[in-house]
Design a protein that fits this description.
The structure is a single chain. This protein is α/β, with parallel strands linked by helices. The chain is 43% helix and 17% strand. It has 17 helices and 15 strands. The strands form 4 sheets. It has a 6-stranded mixed β-sheet. A 4-stranded parallel β-sheet has the order 13-12-14-15, with helices on both faces. Helix 7 links the parallel strand 8 and strand 9. Helix 4 packs across helix 13 and helix 13 packs antiparallel against helix 16. The two termini are 40 Å apart.
Length: 454
């Protein structure tokens, strides 16, 4: 079963589920009388969406005060900032790991989730708990300890001192959730945990929280204003609520139809499609989508991209779809051919054809570059580095088309998921970013308004 399918099972398990010890209706005491007087937890995971400044953090703090001991507030901003300061003051801290054993952390739920959220296929992850007086983690985990992390990525080993903020935040959050895994009576309050992660990491983060809730019987309330988390939460009943302000007071909207309308029409209205484009096949679709997302993620909201059945289909459609000399509508068309073909010459009365970069077919590019970023494949497919290595070894030497098809046919993996992972790994394996820049130049030179700013 794929990671996404397992997450779907966990979401279904926590829907409408009541916590055995935490009250599902929490009275909120607010001296300023601007917050809602109650918060209803209709599932084991509650996402509070709202714009910046609406009062999400204040509400979490008041929930913590009102709910008492079972409620634990986790602020990644404060915890990561404290760890960074500590490392500067105590560069010798890593030596303390020599006196304690690494924690025995589960692979399937926790460590695989770290790889997926961070986006790296670590070959080794070692987590420690170091005794530390007055630790800011103590109010959450119940012990005076702090985390320390050492990871290996290929031949490179480094500790939390060398991690960027997003990478550190992922380890801190998942270490904390793992450390309280035996405490099923907790209400965990997460203040915008997704703020430090890139868009592609936010859905895996929310799925991991659902997995923890389902498997450990813990309840979560988290705040967010990121599109990926809000739209993911919107897919599941009774998970998403919306915080807004009316007449100076914070108002909580929980009715699913109203929340959906606010999200789709106010927060993230759908952009009008400006361009309809076709590529030759499913591999080309995955590669073109990944390239466009790297160039400008907003372009994908304005573009409808379809795949055909080879070059002849594109040639025939292009001939049958004339380009008027003047067209007042804000809709354009384009045809994207594989990089191993010369694009048809520009002709008056026809929409442009643009070649994918690299001078090779998408399958040839996947075969050339994706193995150079096996960590990306491991993270996106939710498989261990050893599994990915075995997959790649099995198809070594095959024709590029067969190579891709055999990988996409692996039991337990969805074909479209594999193609998306190959496309992302291909771009990560192109260390110099030549493919992205070459495609940028071709799009900007196409004469299409949609790409004029690239």
């Amino acid at each position: 079963m794929t990671r996404r399918a397992k997450a779907g099972d966990h979401w279904r398990r926590i829907a409408h589920q009541k916590h055995p010890s935490i009250p599902m209706t929490i009275a909120v005491e607010d001296p300023l009388e601007i917050l809602p007087v109650t918060l209803e937890l209709r599932a084991l995971v509650t996402v509070l969406a709202g714009l910046n400044g609406v009062g999400k953090t204040r509400l979490l703090k008041q929930i913590q005060r009102s709910a008492g001991d079972p409620a634990r507030l986790i602020s990644l901003h404060e915890l990561c900032a404290w760890l960074y300061r500590l490392i500067e003051e105590r560069p010798d801290l890593e030596e303390a790991t020599e006196e304690v054993d690494p924690l025995e952390v589960d692979q399937e739920i926790t460590l695989d989730a770290v790889r997926s959220i961070v986006g790296r296929g670590y070959t080794e992850i070692r987590w420690y708990a170091i005794a530390f007086e007055d630790s800011p983690f103590a109010p959450i985990v119940g012990e005076d300890v702090i985390p320390f992390f050492v990871v290996s990525d290929g031949d490179t080993e480094y500790s939390l001192a060398d991690m960027g903020l997003g990478e550190l935040a992922a380890h801190v959050l998942l270490w904390t959730l793992w450390y309280v895994r035996e405490k099923s009576d907790l209400l965990l309050l997460l203040d915008e945990p997704d703020a430090y992660f890139p868009p592609r990491s936010r859905e895996p983060l929310l799925d991991h929280i659902a997995t923890v809730a389902a498997t450990r019987q813990q309840a979560f309330v988290l705040t967010s204003h990121s599109r990926e988390v809000i739209e993911r939460a919107l897919q599941h009943s009774d998970v998403l609520s919306y915080l807004g302000r009316v007449d100076g007071k914070v108002v909580l909207t929980t009715v699913a139809e109203e929340v959906r309308e606010i999200v789709q029409q106010v927060l993230y209205p759908r952009a009008h499609v400006e361009l309809v484009a076709w590529v030759e096949d499913e591999s080309a679709h995955a590669l073109a989508t990944a390239l466009l997302a790297r160039l400008d993620a907003n372009t994908l909201d304005r573009l409808a991209l379809y795949w055909a059945k080879g070059t002849s289909d594109l040639t025939e459609m292009r001939a049958r779809l004339p380009r008027p000399a003047t067209h007042p509508r804000q809709l354009e068309f384009a045809f994207i051919v594989d990089g191993d073909e010369a694009p048809p010459a520009a002709r008056t009365g026809l929409w442009p054809a643009v070649a994918l970069p690299g001078g090779l077919s998408p399958d040839e590019l996947f075969q050339k570059f994706a193995p150079l970023a096996a960590g990306t494949l491991s993270a996106l497919l939710g498989r261990t580095p050893g599994f990915i290595g075995a997959m790649l070894a099995k198809v070594e030497g095959l024709d590029p088309h067969d190579w891709t098809n055999d990988l996409a046919a692996q039991p337990g993996l969805d074909r479209s998921q594999v193609l998306r992972a190959l496309a992302e790994a291909c771009l990560d394996g192109d260390k110099e970013g030549v493919l992205i820049e070459e495609f940028r130049g071709r799009l900007s030179g196409s004469g299409l308004r949609t790409f004029s700013a690239m």
